[in-house]
Write a structure and sequence with these properties.
This protein has 809 residues and is an alpha+beta fold. Helix content is 15%, strand content 33%. The protein has an eight-stranded parallel barrel with strand order 5-6-7-8-9-10-11-13. Strands 16-17-18-21-22-25-28-27 form an eight-stranded antiparallel sheet, with helices on one face. Strands 23-24-30-29-26 form a five-stranded mixed sheet. Helix 9 runs parallel beside helix 10.
């Protein structure tokens, strides 16, 4: 035997041994999904004046006859300053959100009977128009009961004081009807049928009541009232969890999941959440915190045979609540999203996507146990640890979500019609942490492998030597070419029989991100999966040439092994050409598609990148040194607010840098008064749930004065007051006026100062209520307050952190 033959034999033997030792997990996905059924749901007009039609069948949405899988993000306009709405909507659009949902919180508009306020931060019409300006759809949620962690669920005090609510009491319905009429005026001419962006209405919220004048008839009555005011829209929905009740076929139930439960009475670690469990045929999840349930029925499950699987409250974070204060990581949210989409969700709705702040009012607008609510929340702060924070800033989770959203936006037409297939072996329950969690969505011929090996706060074992065998209608596909390790915390989506503009990609161990027209044809962008070798596999007889990457042939298959940042061109024997670009996982998370000079560009940057109202790109970060890479290259006639420097380009992208004038700021702060003795703990109920201290108790708070330079905001986009502290409740004041507050959760409290520019001429006051050492409040295990004499109320550091801006146009 010659040396070459021996080497070849050894290689084959090694490959066979590797395959034999691999753990192959299997799924039977050969049966094609049934054809979608039309006409089962009583929705409104789906035809727009331009001739485009929004329609819904029992499985998915269509737009202009094409399946779509929208990303919907919640943004409460009354909880954010009007002058920044447009910028925040553009940030949402850049993050891949296509539908903006918003509560229309009744009490924010009619604090006194018959006196409605739709001005300033309450200008719903302007908010809708701004969304329309930038090509975003709008989903209205006018309640009348919203929850939203506001006082009385958003129903005005004067209504709660005078009539029974959330039922068909005639007087209550009269008040609701007047409110609905006002909302209709705000949306007049802006509905889909009129050429506007409003495509849907959610009726009530978490409605699970079956007492006198309640139940399904109440939802029917509210829908009739909305339609009588002209709300003829393509979609009507209700929340479907926690024994929701609603009339069959009149509305579509929407679902959700939260990775922790701040409303829970538990003071310890929660059991593993179903947020991370692929579920097959199950839409409803426990632990969403619906209040006052009297129903024993489950209409959400009842209607699963005629309605698509839509979501409205997949938590982009969680609210702060006094009794339970979890810290949420970016992976906690992103891996839940992969799991839920892999479970069949065909409308990915977040609550919240944009954090906010309650408007001022007397009494305050927050939900509290003192006012009969189920939770104590901050009076003002509603950051939610959402992708976009209370002050408009990007939280780290945003970058984790962007590649998933780009995938859904670009390839949702393929994914939405696909069914969900369960593997042969799947976890027995949410607390089964050893069985590999995965699912397949497919159409009998092609599809996507979804994998999640992350469970918040619990260790999951790595799965070495893993391969996936997918049985399709014509043959089985096994990937990767050899066993790989699915590491703890890994979550990904891999394509099977993926069409690349006429060339069939058998499978890949990289996640599709987007498809981009660079003027030379379709460019398919993929993201590598951790440390797993990216493989792109084609049938040998379908490929003529491969350029730009290494390739190997194994029998009837060609393995293409690309490097990151270079275009790979595959020419088929059918004369068609496929072009693909591989990015690293980190690059994909820093990728944003933004239109500059009328043309879409791919931009890689550590900065927060989004489109601006002038048709260019805006970069924001707290480092004055900007770096970005862009493709296609910038034209010669672009302009920027900072001097750009051309850097050496690596791979496909053109690299640039810019330096903003550095601003160094210092806050002067000093103790105003030391902390007093915190009052004894107050608890409620059989589980001794801690409740927020009474107002008089806050006299024990320590306080500091904070002086900010008067010109601090000059030359920057914002300045953040970053406060490192330990205590129970922190509050920010300008004189006697409370500006903001939060419950201590173990992270830096970041406060954007540009919205308080008129308050900076005088010192601000920061107060910290002492946290008692015997407190029963739940904190994340990483949070370790340092107590002295049985309590803690301290500030360790106060920094002023400038946010710089680079704009291109």
């Amino acid at each position: 035997m010659n040396g070459n033959l021996l080497a070849a034999s050894t290689a084959v033997l090694s490959l066979l041994c590797g395959l034999a030792s691999a753990e192959t997990v299997r799924v039977d996905a050969q049966m094609a999904p049934p054809a979608p059924r039309e006409g089962l749901l009583k929705m409104g007009t789906g035809l727009s004046p331009s001739g485009q039609v929004i329609s819904v069948n029992d499985r998915y949405l269509t737009l202009a006859g094409k399946p779509v899988l929208p990303v919907m993000g919640e943004f409460h306009y009354t909880r954010f300053p009007e002058q920044y709405w447009e910028e925040q909507l553009l940030k949402m659009k850049a993050a891949g959100v296509t539908v903006v949902a918003t509560y229309v919180i009744w009490q924010h508009h009619e604090e006194r009977p018959g006196s409605f306020d739709w001005s300033g931060n309450r200008n719903l019409r302007k908010f809708i128009q701004l969304a329309q300006k930038h090509g975003l759809y709008v989903y209205l949620r006018p309640g009348p009961w919203a929850h939203a962690e506001v006082r009385f669920g958003g129903i005005p005090d004067w209504v709660v004081d005078s009539v029974p609510t959330r039922g068909n009491d005639p007087t209550y319905l009269g008040y609701v009807d007047a409110f609905f009429g006002q909302v209709a005026e705000q949306a007049r001419g802006l509905l889909w049928k009129d050429g506007g962006p409003v495509i849907g209405i959610q009726i009530e919220n978490e409605y699970n009541r079956t007492g006198p004048l309640q139940g399904r008839d109440h939802i029917s009555r509210l829908k009739e009232m909305l339609r009588a005011h002209g709300f003829d829209v393509p979609l009507y929905t209700v929340t479907g969890w926690d024994n929701a009740v609603f009339p069959r076929g009149e509305v579509i139930p929407v679902f959700g999941s939260y990775v922790d439960e701040p409303w829970s009475a538990s003071s310890g670690l929660l059991p593993p959440k179903s947020s991370y469990l692929f579920q097959f045929g199950v839409r409803n999840e426990k632990g969403l915190g619906a209040q006052g349930r009297t129903s024993t029925q489950d209409d959400g499950a009842r209607d699963s045979d005629i309605t698509p699987f839509f979501g409205a409250e997949y938590g982009g974070g969680v609210p702060q609540m006094y009794r339970r204060r979890p810290l949420i990581s970016p992976d906690d949210i992103a891996d839940m999203v992969i799991t839920k989409v892999g479970s069949g969700v065909n409308l990915l709705g977040y609550y919240m996507f944009q954090g906010g702040q309650n408007p001022s009012g007397s009494p305050s607008r927050d939900e509290s146990m003192a006012s009969g609510g189920y939770n104590d929340v901050p009076k003002f702060g509603y950051d939610f640890q959402a992708p976009l924070g209370q002050y408009g800033q990007a939280h780290p989770v945003l970058n984790k979500l962007k590649p998933i959203h780009a995938f859904l936006q670009t390839f949702g037409d393929r994914l939405a019609p696909m069914a969900v297939y369960a593997p042969e072996i799947k976890p027995a329950a949410a607390d089964d942490l050893t069985t590999l969690r995965w699912a397949f969505r497919g159409d009998g011929r092609s599809g996507f492998v979804f994998v999640n090996n992350h469970v918040r706060q619990y260790a999951t074992p790595a799965h070495p030597d893993t391969r996936f065998e997918v049985k399709l209608s014509d043959k089985s596909v096994t990937l990767p070419s050899k066993g790989v390790t699915v590491e703890e915390g890994a979550a990904f989506i891999w394509p099977v029989h993926f069409d690349l503009s006429g060339i069939n990609l058998l499978w890949a161990t990289a996640q599709p991100v987007t498809k981009f027209d660079d003027g030379k044809g379709d460019l398919y962008v993929f993201a590598a999966t951790g440390q797993i070798e990216p493989e792109f596999v084609f049938e040998t007889n379908a490929v003529r040439t491969v350029a730009g990457a290494k390739k190997t042939q194994q029998g009837a298959q060609i393995r293409v092994l690309p490097d990151t940042g270079r275009i790979v061109t595959v020419t088929g024997t059918n004369g068609k050409t496929a072009r693909l670009l591989l990015l690293s996982e980190a690059q994909a998370q820093s990728l944003t598609t933004v239109t500059v000079q009328g043309r879409p560009h791919l931009i890689l940057s550590a900065a927060h990148v989004f489109g601006n109202a002038e048709g260019g790109a805006t970069f924001r970060q707290t480092d004055p040194q900007f770096k970005f890479a862009i493709y296609p290259y910038l034209s010669d006639n672009f302009s920027a607010n900072l001097k750009l420097k051309r850097e050496e380009s690596k791979g496909l992208f053109q690299s640039w840098s810019a330096t903003a004038p550095e601003v160094k700021l210092t806050a002067e702060w000093q103790l105003l008064r030391p902390a007093g003795k915190a009052p004894p703990l107050k608890t409620w109920g059989p589980r001794n749930t801690p409740i927020v201290p009474e107002p008089e108790s806050f006299g024990a708070s320590a306080a500091w004065t904070v002086k900010v330079p008067k010109d601090a905001l000059k030359g920057v986009s914002d300045v953040y007051l970053d406060v490192d502290y330990q205590g129970d409740v922190a509050r920010l004041f300008s004189g006697p006026q409370m500006l903001d507050d939060e419950y201590y959760i173990g992270r830096t409290w970041r406060i954007g100062l540009k919205r308080y520019a008129d308050k900076l001429t005088q010192p601000l006051t920061l107060s910290v209520m002492p946290l008692r050492e015997d407190s029963k409040v739940y904190f994340d295990a990483s949070v370790k307050p340092q107590f002295a004499e049985g309590q803690v109320a301290r500030i360790d550091a106060i920094r002023l952190t400038p946010e710089y801006e680079l704009t291109l146009k």
